Amino acid sequence: MTAQGADYVLALKANHYTLDDDVKLFLDEATATDLAEIDHACAATVDGDQGRMETRTFWVTSDTEW
User: Fold this and answer.
1) What is the DSSP code string of 16-59?
2) pLDDT tens string 54-63
3) Of the residues 18, 24, 40, 43, which has the fewest C-beta atoms closer than 10 A?
């Protein structure tokens, strides 16, 4: 995303309880409307190793008004 002008993309760990809860609430509300109400981008990766497939999906938004 930085190639598109983003400053940073940060990972959030569950041991940051308050922030983790706030972000989960924001994303739960946003996904309830299929992210129709926020500006966002989505990307997915698929990796296979040792007989298993892993799919990772990423959503990115700069909507921080919440």
Assistant:
1) SHHHHHHHHHHHHHHHHTTTTTS--EEEEEEEEETTEEEEEEEE
2) 998 887 887 8
3) 18
